[in-house]
Write a structure and sequence with these properties.
The protein has helices spanning about 10-20, 20-35, 180-185, 215-225, 240-250, 270-280, 285-295, 295-300, 340-350, 365-370, 370-385; strands spanning about 45-55, 60, 75, 80-90, 95-100, 115-120, 135-140, 140-150, 160-165, 185-190, 230-235, 255-265, 325-330, 355. The chain contains eleven helices and 14 strands. By secondary structure, the chain is of the alpha/beta class. Helices cover about 30% and strands about 20% of the residues.
Length: about 400
Amino acid sequence: MTPRPRVLSALAATAALGTGVVVGGTAVAFAIARKVVTPVTRRLADTEVVGVDTRAQTITLRRSPDTVLPGRYGLFVNGSHDYLKIGALLAQTEQTATRKLLTEVEEGERIGRAATFSGWYFVHPGELHIPFREVTVTSPVGECPAWLFPARAGADGGTWVIGVHGRGTTRSETLRAAPVFRAAGVTSLAVSYRNDGEAPRSGSGRYGLGATEWRDVEAAIEYALANGAERIVLMGWSMGGAIVLQTSLRTAYADRIDSIILDSPVVDWRTVLGYQARELRVPAAVTHIALRQLTDPSWSRVVRAGDAISLNDLDIVSRAAELAHPILLLHSEDDGFVPVSASRGLADARPDLVTLPPYSEARHTKLWNYDEKRWSELLTSWISERGLGSERVS
């Protein structure tokens, strides 16, 4: 069974009750609007563990589009208290997928049935075996923790990549890119932002879907410039893509941004929320009310969303003419969570700026996992072709 979209999945049963009932539909719309802007405090169990073979060090999962993907992945188990790394797909049936365990599980060790399939693979920078430092970025909401990965010895440290994670995740999501950028000769900074569970809360304690978080990325740009950066590359995953795009359009340091890299990005929130609502069979009228509650100032207070969110401002396809920075956009046709249509729309609107390599089969934010070699080569080539990460001149 395909896992339901994570933003709205908890509302599926409730939404069904709202069909054709005005009062019920409005209540569902309130719940949807509130869910969209509420920070995730618990990972949704989207994968079932069928069994573990400790002798063969394999794990059998319920089959889904994610669990049969090639590549290396992670699995949060036991209420997300434990994290298992899993490797090659060894066997599959119509109901199950058996994969190699890369984290040893001892005989008698309990692994619960409920799990969360993850593309992170790496959880802590120590697993990368490259130099890093814990640093803090002073943003408008306070001190935001970050990981700093210096460029390799002998490289030009004037280029910094600032990595921005997605909704409901942490900066661990961005770790996959750090070794690639280090090898390419650039410094990278994996940042946190308001309400993500690591950085401080904002006054509302709610997501702005990019409309507020960009200020914390701008603070990261200031940190980078104060510590030797001359050129900035912004890279965002999923909602991090929306944040990065807002940063590029709003920051006072736009002239210091060289380019943008996006992985499975949210380019237009209406497209994403509409897609997920249709997946859950939420009536169109209910979805319309939910979007209104996010965007209308009086309604946004009712759903405790803080300031109203302008979905027009967050629609980068309609604002494509305002873009000024080259963009490498990586997005799979089979994303399954954030539809690729808005990314294609952006590429069509700005072919002079947007490079959109074809991807299929890979799932949301799992392009590295699906084909690590190709993903790494695309990033490395982008850095090289931009004339970044060059060797120091004696």
